[in-house]
Design brief:
Layout: E1 4-9, H1 13-22, E2 29-35, H2 38-48, E3 52-55, H3 64-74, E4 79-84, H4 89-98, E5 102-105, H5 110-121, E6 126-127, H6 131-143, H7 154-164, H8 169-176, H9 180-194, H10 199-208
Parallel strand pairs: 1-2, 1-3, 3-4, 4-5, 5-6
């Protein structure tokens, strides 16, 4: 049976050596190379075509987020596990959209990374610690509209809440000191961005986000 090839991308040699050591005795795996920055990683991964890439985020020259996107463009078959200190929501979501197979934090037990690699080898995925919560909240937001409330501008968000609270176009115009025509324009934009058709739909979204008081 052919071995599963692993490529490591991290700007700290001790991390690379630690991962190599962990899999030295695992006959089903083979660490075929490593890189210290994202740009070098892309070139080497394109040439070597490993099965799994272990990718850090913070690196010189080209960060792990951009390197991940470019590697997935090279081949969607290459599985990428992020191994980083950062649990920022925007990082997790952006990398999840890029098609990663795992996200493990360096402050977690090293065994989590081993579990992630085993899971990905078996055709699954692995997301440790806070990552599932971040992803579930993101998915729930998407369910409230095609793209979620984050696509609304500050003014649109303000008008969205007023519409959902039952205010008329005229009332909103008077409250915000803008013309009814401007309110109508924002209303159309809000409905389009959220992928809904009626103010009732907006009210349902606002209720789910607890943006209006029902008491």
């Amino acid at each position: 049976m052919p071995k599963t090839s692993i490529f490591i991308v991290d700007d700290h040699g001790v991390v690379i050596e630690g991962i190599k050591s962990a899999f030295r005795e695992r006959e089903e795996y083979e660490v075929i190379g490593s890189a210290y920055d994202g740009r070098q990683a892309i070139e080497m991964v394109e040439a070597m075509r490993p099965d799994i890439v272990i990718m850090d985020i913070s690196m010189p020259d080209l960060n792990g987020i951009e390197a991940t996107k470019r590697i997935k463009e090279l081949s969607s078959d290459i599985k990428i596990i992020i191994y980083t200190m950062f649990s920022n929501e925007e990082f997790v979501i952006e990398l999840f959209k890029s098609g990663i197979s795992g996200y493990v934090l360096k402050q977690d037990p090293f065994s989590d990374l081993v579990l992630a690699i085993d899971a990905v080898k078996a055709g699954g995925s692995y997301f440790s610690t806070t990552t599932p919560r971040i992803l579930s909240e993101h998915i729930r937001t998407l369910e409230d509209g095609r793209k979620g409330l984050g696509v609304l501008s500050l003014r649109e968000h303000e008008i969205f809440k007023l519409l959902a609270d039952g205010k008329s176009v005229k009332q909103i115009a008077e409250k915000l000191f803008i013309s009814p025509k401007t309110v109508e324009s924002h209303k159309y934009s809000i409905l389009t961005k959220l992928g809904v058709q009626t103010v009732t739909d907006l009210t349902k979204i606002a209720i789910r986000h607890k943006l209006i008081d029902l008491s």
